[in-house]
Each structure stands twice: as structure tokens, then as C-alpha cells.
């Protein structure tokens, strides 16, 4: 499980739906949630969680996409297995792991040092821990 320490920068809500924006090293991450702990307020420091299978990778991306989170990261390590590929990414000093299929890794010719666009749906990001009391 990938984890990032971030701070809540904005909360939008309508009925039970919440759109929460986080600040991480001058980057903005967006989460969509039906439930939000009452302790989560603007300024709250949190630990965000993200599954490696919920990260999509794009190389030389152009055009518009519906992904709320489109972040730049650099490949630190790329290990091809029999069916899958584990890609370790440097995201502003933190390491994120993305798991993709071997065929996707080969067709994209993923190499250490490549800069990629990391794509994350807002519904795939979650708060695993509230760090401020």
C-alpha cells in the first residue's frame, strides 16, 4: 500500500459526497468520498493510502483525461515478472509503487529515469490515518 503524508487544503461537499483536496509538496491531490471523518478539516495533516493496482501510468501523454490526479513521477526501478510489472516511482521524494501488466510495460518500453504521468481516480485515494488531533 502506498502512503503519502499530506495536509487538507479544501473540502467541498453536497449531501453525503465529499471532494477533499490535499497539499503534498506543492502538488494537489484530490479524493472523492461518501464518508468523511468529522475530525478532517482544512489544515488537518493526514496519511493518504493508495493501492499499487489503482495507479495508471502514461508516457508522452497528450490530451484531456477525466483523472482528477495527474501527477509527474520518475521511474526509480522497473521489475518485469511473468505477468506483471512493478514500477517504483519517485514522486517528490516519496516512493510510489504502480503495478501494471507485463505487456503494458513492454509496449511503453518503461525504463529507469523515464518521467511518467501518474493517473489516479479521486475515488481510489483514501485517508488511512488522521495525524492531527
Automatic annotation (TrEMBL):
Name assigned to this protein: Transporter
InterPro entries, sorted: Mo/tungstate-bd_C_term_dom (IPR008995)
Superkingdom in the source lineage: Bacteria
Gene3D superfamilies registered for this protein in UniProt: 2.40.50.100
Amino acid at each position: 500500500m502506498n502512503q503519502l503524508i499530506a495536509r487538507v487544503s479544501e473540502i467541498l461537499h453536497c449531501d453525503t459526497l465529499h471532494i477533499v483536496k490535499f497539499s503534498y509538496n506543492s502538488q494537489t491531490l484530490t479524493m472523492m468520498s461518501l464518508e468523511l471523518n468529522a475530525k478532517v478539516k482544512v489544515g488537518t495533516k493526514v496519511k493518504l493510502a493508495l493501492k499499487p493496482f489503482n495507479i495508471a501510468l502514461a508516457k508522452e501523454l497528450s490530451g484531456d483525461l477525466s483523472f482528477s490526479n495527474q501527477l509527474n513521477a520518475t521511474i526509480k526501478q522497473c521489475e518485469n515478472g511473468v505477468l506483471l510489472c512493478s514500477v517504483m516511482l519517485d514522486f517528490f521524494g516519496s516512493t510510489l509503487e504502480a503495478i501494471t501488466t507485463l505487456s503494458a510495460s513492454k509496449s511503453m518500453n518503461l525504463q529507469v529515469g523515464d518521467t511518467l504521468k501518474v493517473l489516479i481516480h479521486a475515488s481510489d485515494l483514501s485517508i488511512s490515518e488522521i495525524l492531527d488531533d
